[in-house]
Amino acid sequence: MQQDSQPVNQPNPFEKVVEFVDERVGLKTIQAKMLNEPIPGGSRWAYAFGSVLLFIFILQVVTGILLMFYYVPSTDHAYDSTQYIIHEVDYGWFLLSYHFWGSSAMVVMVFAHMSQVFLWGAYKKPRELIWLVGLALFGIVMGFGFTGYLLPWDQRAYWATVVGVEIMDKTPIVGDFMARFLKGGPTPGQMTLSRFFVIHVMVLPAALAGLAGLHIFLFRKAGPAGPFRGTPEEIKAKTDYFFPRQIWKDIVAMASVFLIICSLAFIEPVVLLEQATPDPGDYHPEPEWYFLFLFQLLRLKMFGGEFGQFLGAIAIPGAFMAFLAALPFIDTNPERNLFKRPAALIGWTVIMIFILIFTVSAIINREFLH
Amino acid sequence: MSNIKLGLLVFWPTFWTGFPIKMVFCLLLLAAHMHPWEGAGFFLLLLVSIPIDIWALGLCARTVFIDRLKVDPQPGMGPNLWIRWAVFSAIGLPLIKVIVSGTTGVAKSVTSNIVHAIKDSIYPTLPVAEQISLELVMWGSVATGVLILCLLGWLYGLGWLTQSFVNNANPLEGTEEERANFWDGLRIPADQPLLLTAFTGAGIVLVFVFWALLPSTTPHPHEEYEFISKGPKEEKVEPKKVLKDAEKVLAKAELVVKKLEEEKGGESKDSNDQKPKEPAAKEPQPEKNK
């Protein structure tokens, strides 16, 4: 009988490279830890929001870097360089429009993710820190929107910043300092643009990357909360690993969001208004759509005057954010079933209706301005 | 299970299962300068949606049947159920649109009259922002209520059309885990590497098609848009003209210097005459911009 001289399981070159890296960094252990995370109650579409957020952020970084190859952050050239990106650079219009709609998608996803965590009661013990870091990430995403809005240096950008900084100025104690720091002068100019640019491309991405890492670390430490209904036996029976089902759901959700952002870039590509001037002319200043409800709220008579503006712009939103931060420590009841937490369900519904009504009101209000 | 719940349980995952595939097609249409919501683009989207919806409906309905109702439907449920749903929705959805838009119109009109009556008799200084929100809440509540009722009716219809398939289905035996494994076994393809290769290949082809269709410069979809930033005008430099101009300038300068020297000489000669001075030579005036 002839013996086979070839070894049976000879590794191919790729396997050899993997083996080499694995010996040095523990690749297989990392892979196993990442993919074999148990998900109590099995995979769900509702769990995809966090992964989608990470995906959008990565694409925002990529498109942002590509835009920075052409963008010039000076008041003399910001507008022209943005026009150059839109009209001259190959696919520049698409990159800019994708980046613009990507920021809106990020706000929507943050909102969806926070809503899911709130409604699932996943902020409760032992996940308080995940919730707090998530709130900080929410603030950073809003900061991205606010600072990025100024960069094209058109009338819309300029006046949205003027309004935003004026609102910030109303904050007690630190408001004046923050407004002066951001503006860098009596009116928005080169210093404002430079500072917004640095915050947008250096400070906030670094902060977001760091906090997102901490968020994921804390999440993996505490483990997924799982569904809010079902007996422990039922949940245990349906428990599945992160791979392959949740990975598949995450990929499909990411692809869907990517397709939606691309489609929006086609349907409503970025079009600049006139270059920024200290004279608004016929332009009625307005913030980005996700701040519209707050903007409309401040138009109400009860929020008129110095104190009213402070109440509507700073005190109420500040108190709401403070309440959200304190929520895991106030709501210590371990019950997570949404239908046994009527205050949570009603509260969330009321806030959603409130935001919807005031956002639509702000859109209708445009007709009255002309 | 109620008809509304059954309709919702089947419709909701069916919609989301077909959505990403339809979105791919929508994006390709947009890249090819066709709007998926009008004209030929809409027709093409409808055409592509038919097989996608039949497949998605069959898959999702069978999942609900096995997972929730513990029955296995008869083969060929997808196309049969789709035809019923499509005919029902083709009549029902336009009807809902007519009802909701009609109700919204009436509600807006009534609301406007009520608010104007309030302004005339009770609160003449009602601010604009408050008026907008008040009117929106009033007509929006009515419109939303009617929309929800109509949608519930539509879902009831979808559930009712599905019930006959439930009645004809075969009951499934075994535990929950066994049923889940049974359905998993049916969905796992026989040749997994082939499926993965086909998916990857389709993805690569779609990416190439997208980049081939994607306009490299902005498609300017807004008619009112004007290119605002024209940038500095480029001037062609002609060396001969530049030299000729420079010679002219030098000749003029020489003339001016010469006349100034003459004037200076004249001044020292007639220094005792005390006559009022006149400029000997005018400086060249800059050309006025026309």
Topology:
The complex is a heterodimer of chains A (370) and B (290).
Chain A: H1 13-25, H2 27-35, E1 38-39, H3 49-68, H4 78-87, H5 92-119, H6 128-150, H7 155-169, H8 175-183, H9 190-222, H10 232-238, E2 240-241, H11 242-267, H12 292-297, H13 305-330, H14 342-369
Antiparallel strand pairs in A: 1-2
Helix pairs in contact in A: 3-5, 3-11, 4-5, 5-6, 5-11, 6-7, 6-9, 6-13, 7-8
Chain B: H1 3-31, H2 39-67, E1 71-72, H3 77-121, H4 128-167, E2 170-171, H5 176-187, H6 192-213, H7 239-269
Antiparallel strand pairs in B: 1-2
Output the keywords.
heterodimer, A: 370 residues, mainly alpha, two-stranded antiparallel sheet, 2 strands, B: 290 residues, two-stranded antiparallel ribbon, 7 helices, 72% helix
How would you explain this protein's 3D organization?
The complex is a heterodimer of chains A (370) and B (290). By secondary structure, chain A is an all-alpha fold. Chain A is built from 14 helices and two strands. Chain A has helices at residues 13-25, 27-35, 49-68, 78-87, 92-119, 128-150, 155-169, 175-183, 190-222, 232-238, 242-267, 292-297, 305-330, 342-369; strands spanning 38-39, 240-241. Chain A has a two-stranded antiparallel sheet. In chain A, helix 6 packs antiparallel against helix 9 (190-222). Chain B is built from seven helices and two strands, in the order H-H-E-H-H-E-H-H-H. In chain B, helix 1 runs antiparallel to helix 2 (39-67). The longest helix of chain B is centred in the middle third of the chain and has 45 residues, at 77-121. Chain B is elongated, with a radius of gyration of 40 Å. Classes of the chains: A mainly alpha (370), B mainly alpha (290). Chains A and B meet through helix 4, helix 5, helix 11 and helix 14 of A and helix 1 and helix 4 of B.
